[in-house]
Automatic annotation (TrEMBL):
Signal peptide: none annotated. It comes from the Bacteria. SUPFAM superfamilies: Pentapeptide repeat-like. Transmembrane segments: none annotated. This is Pentapeptide repeat-containing protein.
Length: 221
């Protein structure tokens, strides 16, 4: 559906991984450099990998509860079945990344930069993307509970098949954001920031009460 009616479609990542070596184990290191590695079922709970770089990597089934990954760079990588609560990815950079079937809660991505990223399947509760920059990002068939986009800049972002519960768009800037494919759309705050987004006629009806309240319109039978 994206690309129709003048909406520019998001460019998806094209991740082409080289032959990978298994991760040798041990704790993450701050400012570490991880290149061409496969991390499988690793327990990174509570560890500090702030400022690290992951390039051409695969992470499968890793636990990242309370893992400190601020300012991390994840490039040309695939993350599958990642799970954790309270993961700190503040000011991280994700470029050409696929995040598949994640189970995350309270993830801190404020101030982060996401470019050519696909988030497919899974569920993320209380995703903090305040002041983040998202360009060419696709959330696909996933559940986002109370995602916080306050002050964020979204350009060419799509949500096909997603459930958005209680989204906060306060102060956000939207350009070519396609919401028409959202399975369930609920905006808690910032409905006035929808300029630059495209919604369906049915979604307009559903958002009517919120839009009326935002504009100070009283609706009576």
């Amino acid at each position: 559906m994206a690309g129709a009616a003048g909406v520019k479609a998001a460019r998806r990542p094209e991740v082409r991984l080289p032959a990978l070596e298994p991760y040798g184990g041990g704790e993450l290191e701050p400012d570490g450099d991880y290149d061409g590695l496969e991390f499988r079922e690793e327990d990174f709970v509570g560890q500090d990998g702030g400022g690290a770089r992951f390039m051409d990597c695969v992470l499968v089934g890793c636990a990242v509860d309370e893992t400190r990954l601020s300012r991390v760079r994840v490039l040309d990588s695939v993350l599958t079945g990642i799970r954790g609560v309270g993961t700190n990815l503040a000011e991280a950079t994700l470029r050409d990344v696929e995040l598949v079937d994640a189970r995350l809660g309270g993830v801190q991505l404020h101030g982060a930069v996401l470019e050519r990223v696909v988030v497919r399947g899974g569920k993320i509760d209380y995703l903090n993307l305040r002041e983040a920059r998202l360009k060419d990002v696709v959330f696909e068939d996933c559940v986002l509970v109370e995602p916080d986009f306050a002050g964020a800049r979204l350009e060419r972002v799509e949500f096909p098949g997603c459930v958005l519960k209680g989204a906060d768009l306060s102060g956000a800037s939207l350009t070519d954001v396609d919401l028409r494919g959202v399975a369930s759309l609920e905006i808690a705050r910032g409905v006035d920031r929808l300029a630059g987004a495209v919604i369906s006629a049915a979604q307009l009806v559903d958002l009517g009460p919120v839009l009326a309240a935002e504009m100070g319109i009283r609706v009576e039978a």
